[in-house]
Amino acid sequence: MATKRRRQNSADVGTKTKRAKFTLENAKIPQVTTQGVVLVTGAGDVGQLGLGPDVLEKSRPTLVKLDQQIVDVCAGGMHTVCLTTEGKVLTFGCNDEGALGRVTDGKEDAEFEAGEVELPEKVIQVSAGDSHSAALLADGRVFAWGTFRDSHGNMGMTLRGNEKLPFEIIQDMKIVKIASGADHIVFLTNHGEVYTCGCAEQGQLGRTTERGSSRNARSGIGKGQIAKLLHPAPISLKPSLRLHFDNVWAATYGTFCKVASKDDVYVCGLNNYNQLGLKSTVPQFLPKLSKEFSKYKWNMISSGQHHSIALDEDGKVYAIGRKEYGRLGLGAGCEDAVELQQLASLSDQKIVNVACGSATSFAVNSEGELYGWGMGTNGQLGTGQEDDCEIPTLIKGKQLLHHKVLRVSSGGQHTVILAVTDTSNDKGDAV
């Protein structure tokens, strides 16, 4: 008779090793240890320059008088966000929809001068969109304020509508980096997950179908659908891919996500001029591998309305997208770039920072010099003129004569510069 099979106990079987959860210790966010001063240029009609109610425009970088030392700057559509060395947030500019995160009603000229945003913890990163701002706290929480907009108008930031004061926008998880598009926010968690919220109409959230991207989508008409868009949720990925990410960047209407420990970059959003590096120019509603952006090792990617500027780990600058106004920096007579093109005029320099406005581009080299190109209509390039620049142009001026630029941020019609005093370097006469 056959022997009876003995049931195995846990002592007889080797314990199956549980797959460790991916953990991201840190992400590439701007180093906020160097204290500097803030310079601004461009339109200031709603206070976004922070120079007071009598200064409505500047065509060259001008020093903003602040009582605190600043370690980071961010230009929104019509407002500016500054991070102080103590981890506090200062804002100035248009506050019609709450983008400043502080009460300005009844206070004369309060929008034209810097004011502090009340937050519960030290801030380590800030971001800004057209009508919203966000702050990443040292403990991994994220607070936001303002509103999102879509083609129907104001979406609100929550179902309550505009949020005039900071509120905790994503809860019960630790965030290591944030990025803002015009009307959406991207969150990178410490487990390499990417969450998004805001407007989805161009596919920038990476988690809706084209039919489900509108607040009036059949899948949830009215407040139910808006709630889905405004509540942060993970981007849609095939579980079988088992992807984790270690960096994110936001375009005006798009999102870039870099796969951890690889060069692969997944993208979603508006791609009508190939600015996401995809061949098809229709909006990409779900994350897709951009073979073009996956060719290089990126230090940072900045993307405007219809173009992208990217900085690789060797300090070289690439451009892709729409050519109008010279925003690509590839020279007069160039065509739209459907593939990434290296900027030859900057090839002999080591670039350490790049930024895009709606139709502008900037680069900072290792010597602290600032180059700008693209649309100059409102003086946002800082050249002293309102002409467009077809190639990277060295930005000069009395205020920059003894300053070394650290980084730059460009909004709709204004530009904000973070710089440190540099009296040891004679940069020649300023115009």
UniProtKB/TrEMBL annotation:
RCC repeats lie at residues 36-86, 87-139, 140-191, 263-314, 315-367, 368-421. SUPFAM superfamilies: RCC1/BLIP-II. The keyword Repeat applies. Keywords: Guanine-nucleotide releasing factor, Repeat. The keyword Transmembrane helix does not apply. This is RCC1-like domain-containing protein. Transmembrane segments: none annotated. GO terms for cellular component: cytoplasm. Residues 38-417 form the RCC1-like domain. Pfam families: WD40_RLD (PF25390). One of its GO terms (molecular function) is guanyl-nucleotide exchange factor activity.
